[in-house]
Write a structure and sequence with these properties.
- By secondary structure, this protein is of the alpha/beta class.
- The protein has four domains: 2-86; 92-169, Alpha-Beta Plaits (2-Layer Sandwich), CATH 3.30.70; 181-293, 3-Layer(aba) Sandwich (Rossmann fold), CATH 3.40.50.510; 296-397, 2-Layer Sandwich (Hypothetical Protein Tm841, Chain: A,domain 3), CATH 3.30.1180.10.
- It is built from 14 helices and 15 strands.
- The strands form three sheets. It has a six-stranded mixed β-sheet with strand order 12-11-10-15-13-14. The chain has a five-stranded antiparallel β-sheet with strand order 1-3-4-2-5, covered by helices on one side.
- It is globular.
- It starts with a helix and ends with a strand.
């Protein structure tokens, strides 16, 4: 979705037909979808593309067809797009989940049948059917009542390299009138109004928030856990000093509570973006931990006193990177340039600048323009957070 947002932003500065606009973002969506197996180890291992991204591609395709009355040639040739049918995406039929079904995943090596033909044949054996191309292999997913029959059927069209069967837990799909939600709850921690708002926007159920740089209490965490009518909960740590407090709070509940050990709030934001309600709590914690560790964070503040042992005087701006003060100066511009150089050295592609309550919007825009001039290849985003201590917090992604 970030790639699509960037493509949309490019269109703001130019004129064009609405149909061409949708084609451009559709084309970008296809290219981005092809890359998703390289973005998540589990997808790469299985040879699957991201399901949500795949659905979005089909949504865009349908919208373009509607705009052009099903005539794609009205706005582009087949060569412009590439052979979409030969990408890792295939036809999908999702008719629901039935009690007693099995989730079957098969790798069919060297298939002797076309993908579309196999889809039509296999369609009658179940639902939730997905077939993906992956080199010389079909990666097949289907929900069926008779996995053995499906295996025998597929064996006539190629070599079955892997065959996995899982019993579908119907409670994951139908909640009914239960008093306790079976989905996973998210608790986060924030120290300023902007971070509080962002975490809620991204799906946190509860944000423990105080507009002061203080740690949450054990009782606050216990009360938040009890408030959520969910049996499985993930807590975003947001600071390594919160770990002991959270671990102690967990001892006072019978719920399944897991910690994502993020060391700052930007890392928690990045981790929360990776959360997927379709995954179990263990796998969600795994991918969220990974995202948090891959987040690069830097800070700029203004000192209210001389710092012993540091070349920082009252009124100086100072930059913190990898838990060390790396520069200080009366000019925030100079301090920011040094911090950006450190961040850029990590081969980042996107930088988000969060700015606090003590710096003006005009000054932030001035600083961003300077960064863009110096590093035109880097995508820059910005957002006010009203932090009481830091004028600038930088979040970067590799």
């Amino acid at each position: 979705m970030r790639d699509i947002a960037i493509k949309c932003k490019d269109w703001v500065a130019r004129d064009g037909l609405i149909s061409q606009f949708f084609f451009d973002i559709y084309k970008q969506a296809v290219e981005s979808l092809k890359k998703t197996p390289q973005m998540l180890d589990k997808l790469k291992e299985a040879g699957f593309v991201d399901a949500g991204g795949c659905g979005f591609v089909y949504f865009l395709e349908g919208f373009i067809k509607w705009l052009n009355k099903d005539d794609f040639s009205a706005i582009f040739s087949h060569n412009d797009l590439g052979n979409f049918e030969n990408t890792e995406i295939s036809l999908i039929n999702e008719t629901g989940v039935n009690p007693g079904d099995f989730c079957v995943k098969i790798l069919l090596k060297n298939p002797s049948i076309e993908k579309s033909e196999l889809f039509n044949k296999l369609y009658t054996q179940g639902d939730s059917l997905i077939i993906c191309d992956f080199k010389d292999t079909f990666n097949i997913h289907i929900h069926t009542k008779d996995p053995g029959k499906t295996k025998v059927f597929l064996s006539q069209f190629g070599e079955i390299e892997q065959f996995f069967v899982d019993q579908i837990e119907i409670s994951k799909f139908f909640k009914g009138n239960k008093s306790v939600d079976t989905s996973i709850g998210i608790i986060a921690i924030a120290d300023c109004p902007g971070f509080n708002e962002i975490l809620l926007e991204l799906g946190a159920d509860i944000v423990i928030y105080d507009n002061k740089p203080i740690k949450p209490s054990i009782n606050e965490i216990i009360n938040s856990i009890n408030e959520l009518q969910k049996n499985e909960i993930i807590i975003l740590q947001s600071d390594k000093d919160n770990r002991i407090i959270i671990e102690e709070a967990i001892k006072h509940t019978n719920k399944k509570v897991k910690i994502v050990h993020t060391e700052n709030i930007p890392s928690s934001i990045r981790a929360l973006i990776q959360f997927n309600p379709d995954y179990d709590i263990g796998y969600n914690v795994e991918i969220m931990e990974k995202a948090g560790k891959e987040t690069i964070v830097g800070y700029i503040g203004q000192s209210i006193r001389n710092l012993p042992g540091e070349k920082v005087r009252t009124g100086d701006y100072f930059a913190i990177f990898e838990n060390k003060i790396i520069s200080s100066d009366k000019s925030i511009d100079k301090v920011l340039n040094i911090l950006i150089e450190k961040v850029i050295s990590k081969q980042v592609s996107l930088i988000t600048i969060y700015y606090g309550k003590n710096i003006s919007f005009e000054k932030v825009n001035e600083l961003i323009k300077e960064i863009i001039n110096n590093y035109p290849e880097i995508e820059i985003d910005s957002r006010w957070i009203g932090h009481p201590l830091y004028d600038i917090i930088i979040q970067a992604e590799i």
